[in-house]
Structure prediction request, 172 residues.
Amino acid sequence: MTATTSINGVDPAAVRAAADRLRARRDEPVRFAAGVRWLGGYRTEAHVGPEPALAGDEPAELAGTGTGPSPEDLLLGAVGQCLIVGLAGAATTRGVRIERLSVDVEGDVNLPAAYGLADGHPGFQAIRITVHLEADADRLELDALVDHALRRAPIPSTVANPVPVTARLAEG
Prediction:
């Protein structure tokens, strides 16, 4: 039996195997899904992945009860989580050992437009990410790693390059 060699808690062989599987099916999108249920007021329950449901709400200053993260908070968290996954994967494939990695993600939302009080785009006007990364590479290599991960991370890419979003009322 061979021991699994991991870098940054990621098995490089598993990353290569995943890339090989995706390469073989490069024209087939990989589907993800979530189910969200209304609990009354602005409270929601999101079923995402195998974990227990995630509570959501709006803050009290926006007429919610503050019992969970807002949709905006969840989006920023998804951007940050996706970028970290991309950084960990890219660092691992390059043999760069991470000692510390975190991101701070913040954004500005045009809530007056969302409430119908002003014209304009009701979503995020800008999202800013600060990456805190200590690893066994020089600053130039780490900057290149961050740039690479940001270009390849699906969630930041989706936010930066919007895709069509549709909604339809279910039958029955």
Q: What stands out?
A: The longest strand covers residues 98-109.
